[in-house]
Amino acid sequence: MIAETGHFAMILAFCVALLQSTLPLYGARRNHQGFVLMAVPAAKLQFILLLWAFAVLTVKFVQSDFSLWLVTANSHADKPFIYRLTGVWGNHEGSMLLWILMLAAYGAGIAQFSKSMPDTLKARVLAVQGMIGVAFLAFSLFTSNPFARLVSPPFEGNGLNPILQDPALAVHPPLLYAGYVGFSLAFSFSVAALMSGKVSPDWAKWVRPWTLLAWLSLTLGIAVGSFWAYYELGWGGFWFWDPVENASFMPWLAGTALLHSALVTARRNTLHSWTMLLAILTFGLCIAGTFLVRSGVLTSVHAFATDPTRGVFILMILGVLVGGALLLFAMRSAGLSSADKNVPFQPVSREGALILNNVFLASATATVFLGTIYPLVIDAFGLGKISVGAPYYNAVFVPLITPLLMLMPFGPLSGWGQSEVLPVFKKLAMAFLLAVLSALTVFIVSAGHQGGAALGVGLSLWLMLGALADLAKKIRFNSVPLARLPKNISKLPLQQWGSVLAHGGLGVMILGIVGTTAWRSEVVQAVMPGAVMEISGYEVTFDGESAVSGENFTAEQGEFSVRRGGVDVTVLKPEKRFYTVERQSTTEAAILKNLAGHLYIVIADETITDGTASRVVRIWYHPLVAFIWIGGLIMALGGVAALTRREVKSFSNDSV
Amino acid sequence: MTIRVASKKINFLILSFFLYVSPALAISPGEAFKDDALEERARSLSVELRCMVCQNQSIDDSDAPLAADLRNLIRAQIQSGKTDAEILDFIEDRYGEFALLKPRFDIKNAPLWGLPFLLVLAGFFLMRSFFRNAPKN
């Protein structure tokens, strides 16, 4: 009975979304105040209804109510509590409901927090949010109903894919969806402005905080996903250029471009059309990503199952929403561009740098898109089957993005309108010198073998030191006495840390990527208890193994004592688990985590050589790898810092 | 129709995913060359070849028996003195271009290799028109 109230709440939310997407538009057009004001309560009501539906589904999962098809298919009473809880979104239907709930939450957020926005604009924005809601609620209700009942409920469920039985499931999908869905607001703002045919100078200032929120959630979501893959898939890879990873990376790249172009629009009141187009495309890529993951057209480790009708449905949503928005853009954007104040600026200026950033990021987005769909296109034209994998992206993406990284530190240091190259470069001279020196050092020490690593280290330092130069300028490092610096740092508005942290964080991340890619070492050995293996200064002794069991799995657990320089460091216990319900095995790596590097041990099968059994053991040393995720976290913190900028405020009191 | 064809393939791939992907562990003891230079060649070739029964993994990452067979095949070929290009050709003849994670640099794949850089150039071009109107100081 409770489940039916959830289902009913979804249907009601669908009806509310229908009203929310039509009447406020009519009101805004005909100047009917009542219909205009209706948007706000409708958005809040839709959110409350969906919150109820989601709560009901969560309760059903926690209770293990196997009369629900979804719970039977994806849960099991013996599953630990946390995975019964997070299992709600560990499947297609439940994750779709989470997606829709977040969509409604963003709508309610606008309704609640954007007090300063004109009512008609707010009505139009919420109406467009309502349209997206209608589309995805219809998708959920008609193709992916999470509340479908079973006529004769089984006593036990089928369990959850063991790979998903991990604490990261609690945060990875919600963060990712908060990112995807968050870009819907940028989309709605664009469409609303296009509908009204005019754009106020404050438009970009309203869009930017929501875009920032989406961007930082997506950044964290991707970082968590990458870390999850790193420790779960059993060898320490952190990024696979898998189609589904690409599906999250494309909106990230486009969203990053959007953040930067919105900065130009907000600050200089220009570039409106481009920012709008970017907003539409960014959310389009989010829907396309959803399509790729759920339709089954692509092969990926994440594919959420694979119902072609669902794929067609999402493709239709994509066509109608994004196609419609683009059509509107084509018809209306020319009229809008007259809103662009033609503030002249030179190529060498903050605007110039931000536009250059957009050129590179848009091309990078298109590249990832191309690589992801090219095999499908080739296949569709009967030209054969090809694979586009990591080696392609490394060959194309790296040269494409390297110039952007080289130019990055110049951006925040150059002035608006026009800027001289020389003074900016002077501020970066020390950073440049150190970066080049460190790159040369790596190159020479490796006897010319590691050109890629040399470039990577150089770029990483260039970005980190460039961010410090940015900070130095902001706190007037060169022009005030040393004693005043602490005060200057503490008085620096939080928002000013945005670019420092985001750009510096990327440098930190690159350091981690280079470290583990260039200097990873590996030992693979079949060993018997007592065997000692050496790797990167560590002495690892295989002490033996034992059978252990958890709540819903049995495991073989190896025991390895780790010594360094004759001193005991720790004991690592990697496992090979067998999940009894799902009848699947997983590898649980044991990792000794240091900033300098991770010692990563997994155990594989037993092998029989000459009649004696030995255990296959694989040990990796991943130097600096932790910086990948630390860097991601720092970047997201930059997003948080930038968020503290007041929603609508004159930008003129920025230090330039 | 692409979708339907793909979905059959997917069902198979999903199955193989559960069989092989979870512990992605790559090479086994005894597989590697003693000679570091040869081993480095074998590894860099492995990274460029797709494990045909896995989702989206190279044979270097995959634990599938077929991937191990391919790795041994590559090592045998290296041993017999073939060049990297010859080995890739050999694999392509045997398994099709699908096996190469880095598509060939040919006319069919020209957009794949060319477009990214053309886009940057196009971007520069558009940018230029932006600044043309800007007065010089």
UniProtKB/TrEMBL annotation, chain A:
<feature type="transmembrane region" description="Helical">
    <location>
        <begin position="207"/>
        <end position="229"/>
    </location>
</feature>
<feature type="transmembrane region" description="Helical">
    <location>
        <begin position="175"/>
        <end position="195"/>
    </location>
</feature>
<feature type="transmembrane region" description="Helical">
    <location>
        <begin position="273"/>
        <end position="292"/>
    </location>
</feature>
<keyword id="KW-1003">Cell membrane</keyword>
<protein>
    <submittedName>
        <fullName>Heme lyase CcmF/NrfE family subunit</fullName>
    </submittedName>
</protein>
<feature type="domain" description="Cytochrome c assembly protein">
    <location>
        <begin position="89"/>
        <end position="295"/>
    </location>
</feature>
<keyword id="KW-0472">Membrane</keyword>
<feature type="transmembrane region" description="Helical">
    <location>
        <begin position="6"/>
        <end position="28"/>
    </location>
</feature>
<dbReference type="Pfam" id="PF01578">
    <property type="entry name" value="Cytochrom_C_asm"/>
</dbReference>
<dbReference type="InterPro" id="IPR002541">
    <property type="entry name" value="Cyt_c_assembly"/>
</dbReference>
<feature type="transmembrane region" description="Helical">
    <location>
        <begin position="619"/>
        <end position="643"/>
    </location>
</feature>
<dbReference type="Pfam" id="PF16327">
    <property type="entry name" value="CcmF_C"/>
</dbReference>
<keyword id="KW-0201">Cytochrome c-type biogenesis</keyword>
<feature type="transmembrane region" description="Helical">
    <location>
        <begin position="125"/>
        <end position="143"/>
    </location>
</feature>
<comment type="similarity">
    <text>Belongs to the CcmF/CycK/Ccl1/NrfE/CcsA family.</text>
</comment>
<dbReference type="InterPro" id="IPR032523">
    <property type="entry name" value="CcmF_C"/>
</dbReference>
<dbReference type="InterPro" id="IPR003568">
    <property type="entry name" value="Cyt_c_biogenesis_CcmF"/>
</dbReference>
<feature type="domain" description="Cytochrome c-type biogenesis protein CcmF C-terminal">
    <location>
        <begin position="315"/>
        <end position="645"/>
    </location>
</feature>
<dbReference type="GO" id="GO:0016829">
    <property type="term" value="F:lyase activity"/>
</dbReference>
<keyword id="KW-1133">Transmembrane helix</keyword>
<keyword id="KW-0456">Lyase</keyword>
<feature type="transmembrane region" description="Helical">
    <location>
        <begin position="96"/>
        <end position="113"/>
    </location>
</feature>
UniProtKB/TrEMBL annotation, chain B:
<dbReference type="Pfam" id="PF03918">
    <property type="entry name" value="CcmH"/>
</dbReference>
<keyword id="KW-0812">Transmembrane</keyword>
<keyword id="KW-0732">Signal</keyword>
<protein>
    <recommendedName>
        <fullName>Cytochrome c-type biogenesis protein</fullName>
    </recommendedName>
</protein>
<dbReference type="InterPro" id="IPR005616">
    <property type="entry name" value="CcmH/CycL/Ccl2/NrfF_N"/>
</dbReference>
<feature type="signal peptide">
    <location>
        <begin position="1"/>
        <end position="26"/>
    </location>
</feature>
<dbReference type="GO" id="GO:0017004">
    <property type="term" value="P:cytochrome complex assembly"/>
</dbReference>
<dbReference type="InterPro" id="IPR038297">
    <property type="entry name" value="CcmH/CycL/NrfF/Ccl2_sf"/>
</dbReference>
<keyword id="KW-0349">Heme</keyword>
<feature type="transmembrane region" description="Helical">
    <location>
        <begin position="110"/>
        <end position="131"/>
    </location>
</feature>
<comment type="similarity">
    <text>Belongs to the CcmH/CycL/Ccl2/NrfF family.</text>
</comment>
<comment type="function">
    <text>Required for the biogenesis of c-type cytochromes. Possible subunit of a heme lyase.</text>
</comment>
<keyword id="KW-0472">Membrane</keyword>
<keyword id="KW-1133">Transmembrane helix</keyword>
<dbReference type="GO" id="GO:0046872">
    <property type="term" value="F:metal ion binding"/>
</dbReference>
<dbReference type="GO" id="GO:0016020">
    <property type="term" value="C:membrane"/>
</dbReference>
<keyword id="KW-0408">Iron</keyword>
<feature type="domain" description="CcmH/CycL/Ccl2/NrfF N-terminal">
    <location>
        <begin position="15"/>
        <end position="134"/>
    </location>
</feature>
<keyword id="KW-0479">Metal-binding</keyword>
